[in-house]
Design goal:
By secondary structure, the chain is α/β, with parallel strands linked by helices. The protein is about 15% helix and about 25% strand.
Length: about 240
C-alpha cells in the first residue's frame, strides 16, 4: 500500500530532526535538503530505517543564475527557435563580473551554487524521495560519496564530477566518464563556453588524433527557465473570465 507523501514527510521530520535543513513538498513529491556533514548518515538512515533500498539516479546541478534569464521570452511563441534570441553576452562568451544572479545564488549566498541531487526508491512501500546536498565551498565543491550506501551511485557520481566538477569524497575511482582524455574544465558549468574550447579529430596524414580550435558555429537553443506564463495558468484565466 502506498503511503501518503504528507505522512511520509512527517515521519521523516520526526526521525531525522535537525539533520534535515529543509523539507519541501510540491506536486506530491518530497525533497529533503541535507547538509554535507549529514549527507552519509542521513542516507544510511533512509536506507536502513525507512526502506529506501534503491538509488535510482544522482545528478549534479549548477544553481548559478537559477530563476533568471537573459533571453526575451515574454512575447515569444511556443514553437521553434523563435523562443530564443542571442543573449546579451553573445553565444560562447561569459563575463563573470556581470554573471546572472538567481534566487539561490545571490550575493552573500555564493556557497549554494553546486548541489548533488539523488532520487531514491522504496519498492516495498512504492515511495519515491528526492534528497539534495549543496557543496559547502563553490570554489572547490566537495560532497561525501554515497557509494558505501548504494553501490549503484558509482558511475552517477563520476558523471557529476566530470560534467560539474563536484568532487565526491571517498569515491573509490573518481575519474572522468564522458569527456575526452585530456579534457580541461567541466562542460555543464554555467560559466563554461557554450561551444567548448577545442575539438579532437583523426588526422590521416599524421596518423594520430590531433586537437584544434572548435569548428562548430555557436547557436542559441530554446532556454529552459523558471517563469510563469499562460501555459501554466488555468483555462479560465487564459480566456480572461
Amino acid at each position: 500500500m502506498t503511503e501518503n507523501p504528507l505522512s511520509l514527510g512527517e515521519r521523516l521530520q520526526q526521525s531525522l530532526g535537525d539533520r534535515i535543513q529543509s523539507l519541501i513538498t510540491e506536486r506530491d513529491e518530497i525533497t529533503l535538503e541535507i547538509a554535507a556533514d549529514h549527507w552519509v548518515d542521513v542516507s544510511r538512515s533512509l536506507r536502513d530505517d525507512h526502506g529506501f533500498e534503491q538509488l535510482v539516479d544522482l545528478c549534479g546541478v549548477d544553481y548559478l543564475g537559477y530563476g533568471s534569464d537573459e533571453w526575451e521570452t515574454g512575447d515569444a511563441t511556443a514553437e521553434g527557435f523563435s523562443r530564443g534570441v542571442e543573449g546579451s553576452h553573445g553565444p560562447g562568451r561569459f563575463d563573470w563580473e556581470s554573471r546572472p544572479v538567481g534566487e539561490s545564488t545571490g550575493e552573500g549566498d555564493d556557497q549554494r551554487r553546486f548541489a548533488a541531487v539523488a532520487h531514491l526508491l522504496s519498492v516495498k512501500q512504492n515511495l519515491r524521495l528526492r534528497i539534495r546536498c549543496f557543496a559547502p565551498d563553490s570554489d572547490l565543491p566537495v560532497v561525501p560519496s554515497l557509494v558505501e550506501i548504494w553501490s549503484s551511485v558509482d558511475w552517477y557520481e563520476r558523471e557529476a564530477f566530470d560534467l560539474f566538477g563536484i568532487v565526491f569524497e571517498g569515491h573509490p575511482d573518481l575519474r572522468r566518464i564522458l569527456t575526452d582524455y585530456g579534457f580541461i574544465g567541466h562542460p555543464f558549468r554555467k560559466d563554461f563556453p557554450l561551444i567548448g574550447n577545442v575539438e579532437a579529430r583523426y588526422d590521416p596524414d599524421k596518423g594520430r588524433v590531433v586537437y584544434q580550435p572548435v569548428s562548430i558555429d555557436p547557436r542559441v537553443l530554446v532556454p529552459k527557465v523558471v517563469r510563469e506564463d499562460s501555459r501554466y495558468l488555468g483555462e479560465e484565466t487564459v480566456k480572461g473570465k
